[in-house]
Amino acid sequence: MVRSPLTPAEVERGQRLGALLRRARGRRSMLDVALAAHISPETLRKIETGRVATPAFPTIAAIADTLGLSLDAVWAELSRPERTADDQRVLPATRRPSLAS
Question: Which of 2, 21, 26, 56 has its CA 20 to 30 A from that of 92?
């Protein structure tokens, strides 16, 4: 089976996913996160670097769970049309933004 080439939007979304996961991983080692998510460190490395721009949903769900990210937070990051300075922060699965200023 031959895969169709990725669109520029898919490539950019894969890069945003990788950046989000790297930020969420913080100082944790790639090996520790990969083993906890039951994936290979090589798979995690490829996702974080954007080489795998469209990873399987169960893989992303496992990594997000390991990092304490909600899938809603992951989707919100990937669905943003533009990046801003506020995109540098990651909300854990248990935190929600406050409406109070």
Answer: 56
